[in-house]
Amino acid sequence: MNARAAVAAVVDPEIRVVTIDELGILRAVEEEPATGRVVVTITPTYTGCPAMDVIRADIRRALAAAGHPDAEVRTVYAPAWSTDWISDAGRAKLAAAGIAPPARRGDDTVVPLTLAVRCPRCGSPETTQVSRFGSTACKALWRCRSCAEPFDHLKAL
Amino acid sequence: MLRAPQSRTEGGPVSGVFDFTLALGDDALIAAQRLGEWTTRAPEMEEDIALANIALDQLGAARLLLTYAGELEGAGRDEDDLAFLRDDREFRNCLLVELPNGDFGVTMAKLFFLAAWQLPLYTALAGGGDDRLAAIGAKARKESAYHLDHASLWVKRLGDGTDESHRRMQDAVDQVWPYVHELFTSDPAAPVDPATLRADFDATVAAVLDEATLTRPETRWTPGGGRDGVHTEQLSYLLAEMQVLHRAHPGASW
Ligand SMILES: [Zn+2]
Q: Taking CA B210 as the corner, what is the angle to CA B206 and CA B212, rounded to the nearest 5 degrees?
């Protein structure tokens, strides 16, 4: 199996409905033709993201299973990850899983303006933030005033 | 009541990239450890999660900064060596972050002042000449913006709340205020001279305290010494708890 495809299929350990490729965590997959060695470059969502060790292990496991046992995973911090790197497919999968995807930032301001977040269950814009910090570093907790359900929102970063 | 060293007793100002990076890494590490103490003890579940997440962000920044500091030092020390195998006199964090958590108001005052300093600091690093620090700054400033937002919200909510919450938030600000001045000790040799961040910090503080109906305290006592390794007694207890496992079982993992 193609190394790039194998790595791109690795799912995020904390949000298992999206892949690391769809989240924009995966930056590069390079295979050295002479040796067959694969070098994967990833970047964390948040500096303290505790899932990074698991992601590194999952990448090596996926590559080994695809016939690439010689692999190295490098972590880079620049340029800093942005929620704008989440692909359209990734956004659709997040929404389908009940996680409201982040608004597109499109600029470099540090404090994103939070516009209305639509309820991923009923689509209502009548929502309120319960806590800006949620079940993982990248999520905030919201509640829908129309259907009364709480839901996660991936914070714009 | 907290007691701190009244004057610098040895060593010069923090200078050079290594000392600067180590100091910022220690600020983030000790802040993370203190915030982590709130886990399972916060006034509400959402706040428990928020403080744990902020602690995690600080820990993330600390790991990057200490790793880089170790490389700059060139003595073969990694992030774990620096975090777990130094004694109190070798830590360069500001006194602000090592102060005990106090009540929730004190914790929010500490976080508010810390974030109001870290945000312009990381922003300046992001645009600075050191590539590694620029990358760390660019990443950490986005997280700092959330910390500042969160702490500001609580300072306003408690300050402009009931008589009791107002009284306690003002007490917290008064208690923590003396410790902010150490952050801005001028050091022209550092990648970012901390003194240049004061105006930004003062503007943030003035705006939030005003909206919170709180009064900025008069500046009288200005304890310092953290950057020279002269700490309050409180840091030793914090380090004992943070380091005991690593020292008892070197290289332990799970
Ligand atoms: Zn709804």
A: 120
Structural domains for chain A: 3-75 (3.30.300.130), 88-154 (no CATH)
**Residue ranges of the domains in chain B?**
15-248
CB atoms within 10 A of CB A13: 16
User: What pLDDT score was predicted for residue B8?
Assistant: 34
Q: Tell me what the pLDDT averaged over chain A comes to.
A: 90
- What is the C-alpha R_g of chain A? 17
A132 C-alpha vs ligand 1 centroid, how far in Å? 18
A131 with B46: Cβ contact below 8 A: yes
Mutation target for A interface from B53, B133, B147: give the one with most A CBs within 10 A: B53
Question: For residue range B235-253, what is the model confidence (pLDDT) as tens digits?
Answer: 999 999 999 999 999 878 7
Query: Is A106 in the B-facing interface, judged by CB distances under 8 Å?
Result: no
* B173 phi, psi to nearest 5 deg: -60, -45
Q: Are B98 and B231 in contact (CB under 8 A)?
A: yes
How many angstroms separate the alpha carbon of residue A113 from the centre of ligand 1? 21
- The pLDDT score that the predictor gives to residue A109 is 60
| H-assigned helices in B85-232 | 95-98, 104-126, 131-159, 163-176, 198-211
How many CB pairs lie under 8 A apart between chains A and B?
A: 76
The Cα–Cα gap between B3 and B5 comes to 7
Alpha-carbon gap, residue B170 to B215, rounded angstroms:
7
Give every CB contact of residue A131 below 8 A, 6+ residues apart in sequence. A140, A141, B46, B47, B49, B50
What pLDDT shows up at residue B11?
Answer: 41
Q: Contact, B92 vs B226, CB < 8 A?
A: yes
Q: What is the DSSP letter of A48?
A: T
Look up the CATH number of domain B15-248: 1.20.1260.10
pLDDT higher than threshold 60 for residue A155: yes
The 10s digit of each residue's pLDDT in B95-147 is 999 999 999 999 999 999 999 999 999 999 999 999 999 999 999 999 999 99
User: Phi and psi at residue B181, in whole multiples of 5°?
Assistant: -65, -30
**In this complex, is the C-beta atom of A134 within 8 Å of any C-beta atom belonging to chain B?**
yes
Q: Is the model's pLDDT at A112 over the cut of 70? A: no
